[in-house]
Amino acid sequence: MRFPQSSSPTSRRNLLLGTAAAGAMFAAGCTSNENNDSDENSKQAANTANDKPGKAVTIGFAGPQADHGWLNAINEQAKRRAKEYKDVTLEITEGSNDTAQQIGQIETLINKKVDVLVILPADGKALTQVGLKAMRAGIPVVNLDRVFASPQAYRCWIGGDNYGMGLNAGHYIGEQLKDKKNAKVIELAGIDNLELTRQRTAGFNDALKNYPNIKKVGRQAAEFTVESGQSKMAQLLQAHSDFDALWNHDDDQGVGAERAIKQAGRDDFLMVGGAGAKHAMDAIKADNTVLKATVLYPPTMAASAIDLARALGQGKGVGGLAELEIPASLTLYSAVVTKDNVDEYLPTGFS
């Protein structure tokens, strides 16, 4: 996931939701209140999002170029979810990594007077002004993952937890190695000048502090590509003949890392991936490689963004919550997928 900017878990009012819980919540029927014998509960039921057809809503969707498996999954999740609603029309742009071009695409959607916008900006800071423009035009914006520089540029933010990815990867590895004396781990990170990479590494390092028997002995930064994953992993393998675990930030670059591992004939350590690609889940299920787990950065957030946009366009809240309005911020949970639970998450795996 090549994100020029990502959210900080401490910089906004986070509501922590698991991926499955978020999807179920947004698509839930009427309300989760068990006791509906009061006027207030009836009012909440009437204002809560549900999957019954309602007011027609046109949603404009603008994202970056799908030049990565995760970004392509984002687009597919949005399209698939929109098709599930008879009352939703989706206006989707081609996607671009050129900020000026993406701004132009969003301005076209504003001029078309769509009811709601879902925007995954190529660069959150650079596209803040067009988010503000939409909000000032009375078009609510659902800011997806890469956050705008101003909270006034969006009505709701929804995205993943990069720090949580590292934290959960570190805790998983720590639990596997907690009884091993002088355990060693290495890290294959993403692009180092991206905030998301720094957050993932920070979470990983913080988790390892709970395991004094474990020492991180090596780290290389790749570029979220198969080629970079292979070359950087080969360097790590050459530099470290003995280690017990590897955390790789991204399953796409993990394809290259696995090639390097196979070429080196190494199987003396466990590997944890990141994001939740289908090929990684298939390997975890087969249990015949060093890859034993992956930490999710769920592309299902795009489907949930469509749910939120629909609710905004219809003036409804969210099933499962007592509030009449949708939250200002939703941070999705980075679940660890292992052989024990992989069947549950396989449907969310992306190619």
Automatic annotation (TrEMBL):
GO terms for molecular function: carbohydrate binding. Pfam families: Peripla_BP_4. It is found in: Cell envelope. Residues 59-316 form the Periplasmic binding protein domain. Keywords: Signal. GO terms for cellular component: cell envelope. It comes from the Bacteria. Residues 31-56 are annotated as: Disordered. Residues 1-27 form the signal peptide. InterPro entries: Peripla_BP_I, SBP_2_dom, TAT_signal. PANTHER family: D-ALLOSE-BINDING PERIPLASMIC PROTEIN-RELATED. Belongs to the bacterial solute-binding protein 2 family. This is Sugar ABC transporter substrate-binding protein. It comes from Streptomyces antimycoticus.
